[in-house]
Structures are given as C-alpha cells and as structure tokens.
C-alpha cells in the first residue's frame, strides 16, 4: 500500500508537468489551429527565466574585510550581493533564497512577450498552411531557441534550488497512520502539484467567467461569425498565444528545482506532451488536463520495480502503448471534438 500511494504521488507530479504543457498546446491549437512544435522550447525558456532571475539576484560586488586575512596575511576580499546593500543582509538573503518563486513575476511578462512575438512574427504566416508545414517551421524554431540557450548558458544542467523552507520531505505515512518514514515525499514536488492545480483552475476560470474568455471560446467555435460581429478576434487570439506561452513558461519556472534546467529539456517534454494532447483529444482543454494526469499516473506505476521485473523497460513505452489503445478505441481521443484535424 505504501508503494502504491508513493507511485500515485509520483504520477501526480509528472502529470502536473504534462497537463500544464498540454494545456498550453491545446490553447494554441484550439484558438489558432496551429500545431506548435516550439511549445516545449517555451517550457525550457521558462526554466531559464528562473536561472536568469536567480543570477540577477546573486549579482555581487567586492568588499575588502580588513578584520580578516587570507593565508598570506592580506585583507580578505568578499563577494557581497547587491541585495544585501539594498534590503539588508537578512531580507536580501531571504529574497535570494526565494529566487525561484519570485522569478514567476519576471517570467510572466517575458513569456507573454515571447509568445506574442512568435505569433506575430512567424506563426501567423502559417495559419492557412498544411499542418505539416506548421510542424516543420515550429520544430525548426524550437531547435533555434534550443541552440540559443545552449550558446548563452552552456550545455550542462544548472542547479536551481528551491527555497530552504521547502527542502526536505513530508511524511505522508505518519499522517495516514502508517509507520513513520514509510511514505515520504519531497515538499517541492507537492508545491508543484498545487501550483499546477491553481494555474489550470485559473485558465479555465478565465475562459469560462470573463468576457474576454467567452469571446475567445466563441471564436474557437465559430471564428467567422465573431468577426462579423465587429470583434477583432485575431488580436484576442494573439493574446491567447501569449497566455499559452506564459502557462508553459510558468510550468518550466517551477520545475527547475525538480530537474536542473538544461538546453534540451524542452524536447524531452515535447513529444510526450503531444501524445497527451492526442490522447485527451485535439482541441479539448479538459481532455488535455485529464490525459496529462492519467498518463503521468500510469507512467509512475509502470516504473515500479515489481512491474519492471516482469516487463523490463515498460516504463519507457507505456505512454505510447496507452495512446495506441485509446486511439484504436476512440479515434478522436478521450474528449476530442468532431471535425478537429479530420479533414
């Protein structure tokens, strides 16, 4: 039972990342009809927004401490972060420690700006082109962005720690009546799941309860009619592209303490996220979220030692097997809409 609960938690953790990326992918496809293979790169850029913000907070200057000397007897030179000068040692250290959560404020405008620039500068020229053309151009853009990140940040992963308050693990076993230490799970992974739930709920609430969201949903259902009503739906769809980019970026920001950012992390999630979208149903936002968590949980259980002893390597292909089974039985996916990508 302890192993089952632990793998379920692992599934929620993986599913959170899959669901957030797939949600952004579906927003773009549902509004613009574009198959965006650069979406994984947006997840990667979000992670490097956290890296950049952390480095900015850690900028320092040299201070000579006359009261301390090195082994040669010279006054010791210390690197003091500017945050200490601006806010004091204690507050400055706390700000640096909370760099990852605070980088959300930095990442949101950056990711929206990148998303709008991508849509206006490149994607809009491929609206009426075949999906194969869209895949090729966005995949090429993803490779370019990946190489740009590699050039500026290097090829090695960059550790970006969580705040000290969330270092360590929560003892679920003790809370559920099991032996102490039988089910422990990292605090930050729980934070990531709760963060994903908040973002997903916020996106759905925005689309469901705001006038802007209602117009966007109407445009997704019947673009021509909305345009005839005098509404600039193209402008709203551009903003939605920026919001989708922000969702992917925030998923990357909060994922940095779980997996140290590297230049190929976007590609690692891209294919899996598209499988999630297809299983959930192209154009279906609830389907993308449902499939993300479902496939994350299935992958986690397939990674159990007991399963791998019987079926070695099944954890590497289980998501694709599930996708095959779902598409054979439900060609439109779990919650797919009729007519989407069926021309």
Automatic annotation (TrEMBL):
Source species: Jannaschia donghaensis
TM segment ranges: 16-35, 42-64, 84-114, 135-153, 165-185, 192-216, 236-257, 269-298, 310-328
Superkingdom of this protein's organism: Bacteria
Protein's name according to its UniProt entry: LIV-I protein H
Keyword set, alphabetical order: Amino-acid transport, Cell membrane, Membrane, Transmembrane, Transmembrane helix, Transport
Protein's cellular compartments: Cell membrane
Family the entry assigns: Belongs to the binding-protein-dependent transport system permease family. LivHM subfamily.
Keyword Nucleotidyltransferase attributed: no
PANTHER family named in the record: ABC TRANSPORTER ATP-BINDING PROTEIN, BRANCHED-CHAIN AMINO ACID TRANSPORT SYSTEM PERMEASE PROTEIN LIVH
Membrane topology, as annotated: Multi-pass membrane protein
Annotated GO MF terms: transmembrane transporter activity
Pfam families attached to this UniProt entry: BPD_transp_2
UniProt GO cellular component terms: plasma membrane
A biological-process GO annotation: amino acid transport
Main location: membrane
């Amino acid at each position: 039972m302890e192993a089952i609960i632990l793998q379920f938690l692992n599934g929620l953790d993986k599913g959170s990342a899959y669901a957030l990326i797939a949600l952004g992918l579906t927003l773009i496809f549902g509004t613009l009809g574009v198959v965006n293979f650069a979406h994984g790169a947006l997840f990667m850029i979000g992670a490097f927004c956290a890296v950049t913000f952390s480095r900015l907070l850690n900028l320092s200057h040299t201070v000579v401490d006359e009261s301390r000397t090195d082994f040669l007897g010279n006054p010791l030179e210390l690197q003091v972060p500017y945050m200490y000068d601006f806010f004091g040692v204690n507050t400055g250290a706390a700000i640096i420690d909370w760099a990852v959560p605070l980088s959300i404020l930095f990442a949101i405008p950056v990711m929206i700006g990148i998303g709008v620039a991508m849509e206006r500068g490149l994607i809009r020229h491929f609206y009426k082109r075949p999906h194969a053309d869209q895949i090729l151009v966005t995949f090429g853009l993803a490779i370019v962005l990946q190489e740009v990140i590699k050039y500026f940040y290097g090829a090695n992963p960059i550790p970006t720690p969580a705040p000290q308050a969330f270092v360590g693990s929560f003892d679920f076993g003790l809370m559920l009546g099991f032996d102490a230490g039988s089910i422990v799970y990292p605090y930050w992974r729980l934070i990531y799941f709760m963060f994903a739930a908040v973002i997903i709920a916020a996106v759905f609430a925005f689309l469901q309860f705001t006038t802007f969201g209602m117009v966007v949903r109407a445009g997704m259902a019947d673009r021509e009619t909305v345009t005839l009503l005098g509404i600039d739906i193209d402008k709203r769809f551009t903003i939605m592209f920026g919001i989708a980019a922000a969702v992917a970026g925030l998923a990357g920001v909060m994922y940095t303490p779980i997996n140290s950012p590297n230049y190929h992390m976007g590609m690692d999630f891209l294919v899996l996220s598209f499988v999630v979208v297809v299983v959930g149903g192209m154009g279906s936002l609830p389907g993308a979220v449902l499939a993300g968590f479902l496939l994350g949980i299935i992958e986690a259980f397939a990674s159990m030692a007991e399963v791998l002893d019987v079926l070695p390597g099944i954890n590497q292909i289980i998501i694709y097997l599930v996708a095959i089974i779902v598409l054979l039985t439900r060609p439109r996916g779990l919650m797919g809409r009729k007519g989407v990508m069926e021309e």
